[in-house]
Amino acid sequence: MSRYWSNTLKNIKPYTPGEQPKDRKYIKLNTNENPYPPSPRVIEAIKNAADETLRLYPDPMGEELRETIAGYYRLQGNNVFIGNGSDELLAFTFPAFFEPAGKPILFADVTYSFYPVYAAFFNTNYRLIPVDEEFNIPEEGYYQDNGGIIIVNPNAPSGKGVSGKTIEAILGRNETSVVILDEA
User: Fold this and answer.
1) 86-182 CATH fold
2) Which of 28, 46, 57, 88 is the most exposed, fewest CB within 10 Å of its CB?
3) 161-176: pLDDT as tens digits
């Protein structure tokens, strides 16, 4: 089957997920696992929702969910984009906002390892912004010509957060760029 793969796919260095320990005594904070079990009310809501409609194909547009989220945040439903987890949603951002082989997008050199994989897959140039010795992301690194910016907050794997003031400064200096704030 590999003979049919594109050169792009053949040359991509695959994403390697972190270890998935078999011993479930650990709480994996990097995968947003909750250290507590679901509340009894959540379990009851799931049981109540598991009626005869569970066998039906879900609404591919997720209209009810989008409208519910929109109502909660006082938005229009068409301003809410849903998907099967943050990896899928982030993957959609590359072809949606970044030009193939265009100006480089900027992201930290020590961060979520999926970004270089996405960039290669979508033929997107990128430039790494070096973190300092304490893993802080210097805002000045984002003050350069770019095709977009991705900021992971708090950054992975360091857990260092970027202040609202710093984010506002980066936004102010990049008014014509798409800035993605990944706070998964």
Assistant:
1) Aspartate Aminotransferase; domain 2 (3.40.640)
2) 57
3) 999 999 999 999 999 9
